[in-house]
Specification:
6 helices; mainly alpha; 168 residues; 2 domains
């Protein structure tokens, strides 16, 4: 990647993003340059870097990347537009789930969600938002246990391409 590509894309949104500014930057760079998907790990992302704010999640806000993706919708049609809409929903859902347990989830956290693209996910978000804080905290605990493999299951995201889920 060239420095000029980063500058043209607008660099990292330090003041606008509390979490995920790197993804916001990469998606803007990818839109302006030629990129391909490679099913092989070609880079390592380090979570233990000085000055990183990835552990901080702003409650009841959508991901800072959502406005960028919404602006991109105006410039694209067809499969690219469909993929952008999917990504908007994915980021909203992931950010809402990640913020569970820090504050009761409210509807403004999933503003911009494309309901017509994922009605079941929207129903889940709405149900969680209408649930009492104690239930939301229990869901957050279950999410943490799952992430830490306390429940004894391998997460699909930890599998390498071509590797299958181990038998229970």
């Amino acid at each position: 990647m060239r420095a000029a590509d980063l500058k043209t894309a607008g660099l990292f949104p330090a003041c606008r993003c509390r979490r995920g500014g790197d993804k916001d930057t990469w998606i803007r760079v990818i839109e302006r340059t030629k990129a391909i998907a490679v099913p092989t790990v070609i880079a390592t992302y380090h979570n233990d870097v000085v000055n990183q704010v990835t552990k901080k999640v702003a409650q009841n806000q959508s991901h800072c990347m959502v406005p960028t993706l919404e602006q991109m919708l105006d410039r694209h049609q067809g499969a690219t537009r469909t993929n952008l809409e999917w990504l908007i929903n994915h980021e909203i859902m992931e950010y809402a789930i990640r913020s569970l347990g820090k504050a009761p989830l409210r509807r403004e956290a999933f503003k911009g969600f494309r309901v017509d693209r994922a009605r079941l996910s929207y129903a889940a978000l709405t149900t969680i938002a209408m649930s009492p804080p104690a239930l939301q905290n229990a869901l957050a605990t279950a999410r943490t246990w799952t992430a830490r493999n306390i429940l004894g299951r391998s997460r699909p995201s930890t599998l390498r391409p071509g590797q299958s889920q181990p038998a229970a």
